[in-house]
Design a protein that fits this description.
The chain has 148 residues and is of the alpha+beta class. 14% of the residues lie in helices and 32% in strands. The chain is globular, with a radius of gyration of 21 Å.
């Protein structure tokens, strides 16, 4: 004979199973680079940032954990990446290669990351993409804000 209690057990187990699956899935943001406060304004008319005037241009700026790479990926889009390599944060430091399409950890693990594909790993042992910061671009004011 079924009781009201036994009818409640089945939905409870499904909810419990769903909750366990939900909280045990891998998080792609589980990057080993520590979170630090970033809020950096950039006046793109300043000569320091001249290289950001053209697509494919980049500059290194102070901020983040070990510096930030600011990259102009299109006329209206900028990307900002942490320069610390996620494979070995204590040693690795990324810089842009000659193609201006990839960033490479030339000091540590030699991993390569695509600057156009949100810092995704394109070669090497790193399991994580480059840590990325938000870029807010005001075309009319020629102003860029990098923040997290």
């Amino acid at each position: 004979m079924k009781t009201a209690y036994s009818n409640l057990k089945t939905p409870f187990y499904y909810i419990l199973l769903f909750s366990l699956l939900l909280f045990s899935t891998c998080d792609k943001n589980n990057n080993p680079i520590p979170n630090v406060y970033v809020d950096i304004p950039i006046d793109l008319t300043d000569p320091l940032y001249y290289d950001l005037q053209s697509v494919g241009g980049y500059v290194y700026i102070t901020g983040g954990v070990n510096g930030i790479l600011v990259y102009r990926s299109s006329a209206d889009e900028f990307k900002a990446y942490e320069r610390t390599c996620p494979y070995d944060p204590d040693i690795g430091r990324i810089s842009v290669d000659d193609s201006r399409l990839n960033a490479v950890d030339s000091v540590g693990c030699k991993s390569e990351f695509s600057l156009l594909l949100d810092g995704a790993v394109s070669k090497g042992p790193s399991q994580y993409p480059l840590k990325q910061y938000n870029c807010i671009y005001d075309r009319n004011a020629q102003y860029l804000r990098i923040k997290n």
